[in-house]
Write a structure and sequence with these properties.
Helices cover 51% and strands 8% of the residues. It is an alpha/beta fold. It folds into five domains: 104 residues, Alpha-Beta Complex (DNA Primase, Chain A), CATH 3.90.580; 70 residues, no CATH class; 113 residues, Dna Topoisomerase Vi A Subunit, Chain: A, domain 2 (3-Layer(aba) Sandwich), CATH 3.40.1360.10; 124 residues, no CATH class; 98 residues, no CATH class. The strands form three sheets. A four-stranded antiparallel sheet has the order 4-5-6-7, with helices on one face. Strands 9-8-10-11 form a four-stranded parallel sheet. Keywords: DNA replication, DNA-directed RNA polymerase, Nucleotidyltransferase, Primosome, Transcription, Transferase.
């Protein structure tokens, strides 16, 4: 998202021109001397997070897209100019990296303190961390106190799910002029942009290294979540957990150094992106090597990106249950009879399929099984929790898709309230079926509206969030159901299998991938045409026109048609 936004202001020519300055940046930042680089020598990894003290990195003048890159044989990472700026200067967003690269190497005239140093005059390698001076500390403290007085002049935190009491008690502030939320760290603060069009999302105090948030938890016993951003740590804190935010993946080594004698049980739950997964694995290994109690939980926050998104979309209670789910070991629940397990597993799967025509009867049957025929009390409680989790995920998924299409998410507020009450009732073996049926109906209507908007916008990615797609199973399972009457569900489930690997793919591009997959399974053109003709994408056409357009499109994709331009335009 950040990279896409920055690319609106960065064309390929400028990107290549800036990228060619990677050698300049390596020399100026003290990573390697000009002579060593000229001779093609290896040098220490330039990423502070690696903590490398051996010559394991190499500079390549021509990498992907003809731009120079650095590759480290030790950690296996590759950097172009932008990624390296981000790693060394704590600039996680691509837009920030672009801005810094322009400041250093842009075509405009540079000031003395940003002008690149000549190869013959390399700078000394800077220290990784820059500690605040006494004057810095006074300035930072006064700034934070001033901003705390303005916290009610923004509702950014309220929209993110935080309460007024919480933000005040945790010292959050607001910079009115910069329009940024000021979030305290252990030694300073991070300034989070509140405007969606702001390209640089996070800023740190000038001249001071960013620090951890919540490092005092290192000395406490119990489970402690390790997350990337300060807002994520605060989201966990508000929902009853303990958390430490790195605020930069380069702070992983700082956390390790502070955790030497920690009694805490660390849960590594960094973001679900590539950087988070890589850093999380390395951090877990280093803590384990020190003998610390640590559990790595990859992609802990799916289907959301991070705990902040869980709080924003699902609310405090939903995030609280998610934290409990991550923190507890998943052990198999033993039932008193195997047939009980088979029965409620089948009912649970039917619940997730979410067929409106038998939703109420399924739920009644399901709940009667859980509270009646299943004799083991622990199993009944376990199934009640699973029921609540399914409803939680459903609400979060729809909330994600709603954001994609600017739905008024407050429309979901009554839905969340009913879900919350149902969750309590479920634990107490209540049977308010009218309320359950009403909520199922609302969610079904909302899902149908979202599918229509997704089709209209020619976007397939939001459909990944919808339960009827999310739980469709593998492509093989989808193809086994091709004889069913619900062609729409079959078609979109197939689209899902492609989009799972290519997130953000448009429906048209997904179509081009799905049709060959169906062909590989022996599904003929006529059958594929029938599936596509029943797609909501073509609802504005009459049946004859839908079949004609679908047939032309399938012929185009499979290479059996001649008039490709006409097919693709349709």
């Amino acid at each position: 998202m950040e990279e896409a936004l920055a690319m609106k202001y960065l064309d390929e020519q400028e990107k290549m021109e800036l990228g060619r300055h990677l050698a300049d940046y390596l020399i100026e930042s003290g990573c390697v001397t000009a002579d060593a680089l000229g001779r093609g020598n290896n040098f220490c990894c330039p990423d502070p997070a690696h903590g490398d003290d051996s010559p394991s990195a190499h500079y390549y003048d021509k990498g992907p897209n003809s731009c120079p890159v650095v590759y480290c044989f030790g950690c296996g990472n590759t950097w172009d100019l932008f990624k390296l700026i981000g790693a060394r200067e704590n600039l996680p967003d691509f837009s920030q990296q672009v801005e810094r690269a322009r400041e250093l190497y842009g075509s405009r005239e540079r000031s003395a303190d940003t002008r690149p140093v000549a190869y013959s005059q390399p700078r000394q390698r800077p220290t990784v961390r820059v500690e605040a001076t006494a004057e810095d500390k006074v300035r930072i403290l006064q700034y934070k106190l001033n901003c705390q007085q303005n916290i009610l002049q923004t509702d950014f935190w309220r929209k993110r799910g935080f309460t007024e009491d919480f933000v005040k008690s945790h010292g959050l502030g607001y910079d009115v002029r910069e329009k940024r939320l000021i979030i305290p760290t252990d030694t300073a603060y991070v300034a989070r942009a509140t405007q969606p069009d702001e390209r640089i999302r996070y800023k740190n105090p000038k001249g001071v290294s960013v620090s951890l948030t919540g490092s005092e938890k290192i000395k406490e016993q119990g489970k402690v979540f390790i997350v990337e951003g300060a807002l994520d740590a605060l989201a966990i804190e508000q929902s009853g957990g303990k958390a430490i935010a790195l605020n930069s993946v380069s702070n992983a080594n700082l956390l390790v150094s502070l955790a030497k004698d920690s009694p805490a049980e660390f849960l590594i739950t960094l973001d679900n992106d590539e950087a988070g997964l890589t850093t999380g694995k390395k951090l877990a290994e280093k803590l384990a090597d020190m003998g610390r109690s640590v559990t790595l939980v990859p992609k802990a926050w799916e289907p959301c990106k991070d705990p902040g998104e869980w709080l924003e979309i699902g609310g405090k209670e939903v995030l609280e249950r998610k934290l409990q789910d991550i923190a507890k070991p998943h052990t198999e629940v033993k039932t008193e009879a195997q047939e009980d397990k088979e029965t409620y597993q089948q009912l649970y799967e039917r619940l997730l399929e979410h067929k409106p025509e038998h939703a109420k009867s399924d739920l009644i049957e399901y709940w009667e099984r859980v509270t009646g025929e299943i004799r083991n009390a622990v199993t009944r409680l376990h199934e009640a929790q699973k029921f609540c989790e399914a409803l939680d995920l459903w609400t979060v998924a729809i909330g994600q898709a709603a954001k994609e299409f600017d739905f008024k998410t407050e429309e979901l507020a009554p839905v969340r309230e009913v879900l919350k009450e149902l969750g309590k009732n479920a634990q107490q073996e209540a049977d308010d079926w009218n309320a359950i049926f009403d909520i199922m109906t609302k969610l079904d209507d909302f899902t149908r509206d979202l599918i229509e908007k997704a089709v209209e916008a020619r976007k397939a990615s939001p459909l990944l969030a919808l339960p009827k797609v999310q739980h469709a199973g593998s492509l093989d399972e989808v193809l086994m159901k091709l004889e069913s009457e619900n062609f729409e569900a079959v078609y979109y489930a197939a689209v899902k299998e492609v989009c799972r690997k290519q997130a953000g793919t448009g429906i048209f591009e997904a179509d081009k991938e799905v049709v060959p997959l169906l062909k590989e399974k022996g599904i003929g053109n006529a059958h594929i045409t029938g599936i596509m003709a029943n797609s909501p994408r073509l609802e504005h056409l009459d049946q004859q026109q839908r079949l004609m357009d679908s047939r032309r499109f399938v012929e185009y994709i499979t290479g059996s048609g001649k008039d490709r331009e006409e097919a693709i335009s349709r």
